């Protein structure tokens, strides 16, 4: 039997969030969006998507209320963007779109709740 405090549990969850694979993070984000009625486009890197998407296209694109569109690139905490991803990010930002590198579900929630 563990005698964990609430703070201990939150620290453990935060650490767990930082170490989960991108596929788990992507699944959580898609579930969040579907559960709230936010249309999202999410591609697992597969042969089916090859040729359909531009090189460097982000992992998740979400339509939020009030005309907000957010492009998310999911990465492990210390992982860097590939050249094509960095170029697409610059294009999106120059065109006035929101583009974010996301490493944790907590960070995604901050973006999603940002009105």
Brief overview:
The chain is an alpha+beta fold.
Commentary on this structure:
There is one protein chain. The protein has one domain: Trna Endonuclease, Chain: A, domain 1, CATH 3.40.1350.10. The longest helix is centred in the first third of the chain and has 15 residues. A four-stranded mixed β-sheet has the order 1-2-3-4, sandwiched between helices. It is globular. The chain has four helices and four strands; from the N terminus they run ααβββαβα. The protein is an alpha+beta fold.
Which SSEs are present, and which pair or pack?
Layout: H1 6-19, H2 22-36, E1 40-42, E2 60-64, E3 68-74, H3 83-94, E4 98-102, H4 105-113
Parallel strand pairs: 3-4
Antiparallel strand pairs: 1-2, 2-3
Q: What would CATH call the architecture? A: 3-Layer(aba) Sandwich
Mean pLDDT: 85
What global shape is seen?
globular
Order of strands in the sheet with most strands: 1-2-3-4
- The end-to-end distance, rounded to whole angstroms, is 42 Å
Question: What do we call the CATH topology?
Answer: Trna Endonuclease, Chain: A, domain 1
Radius of gyration: 16 Å
Summing up helix and strand content along with how strands pair, one would put the structural category as alpha+beta
Number of helices: 4
Number of strands: 4
> What's the main sheet like?
4 strands, mixed
Provide the β-strand percentage band: 15-25%
Count of individual domains: 1
Using the coordinates above, name the CATH class. Alpha Beta
Helical content (DSSP H or I, runs of 4+) = 40-55%
Order of secondary-structure elements = HHEEEHEH
Low-confidence stretches: none
């Amino acid at each position: 039997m563990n005698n964990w405090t609430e703070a201990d549990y939150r620290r453990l969850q935060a650490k767990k969030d930082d170490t989960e694979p991108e596929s788990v993070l992507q699944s959580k984000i898609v579930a969040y969006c579907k559960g709230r009625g936010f249309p999202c486009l999410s591609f697992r890197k597969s042969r089916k998507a090859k040729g359909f998407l531009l090189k460097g296209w982000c992992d998740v694109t979400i339509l939020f209320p009030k005309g907000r569109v957010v492009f998310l690139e999911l990465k492990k905490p210390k992982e860097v963007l590939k050249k094509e991803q960095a170029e697409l990010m610059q294009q999106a930002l120059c065109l006035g779109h929101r583009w974010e590198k996301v490493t944790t579900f907590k960070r995604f929630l901050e973006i999603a709740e940002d009105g």
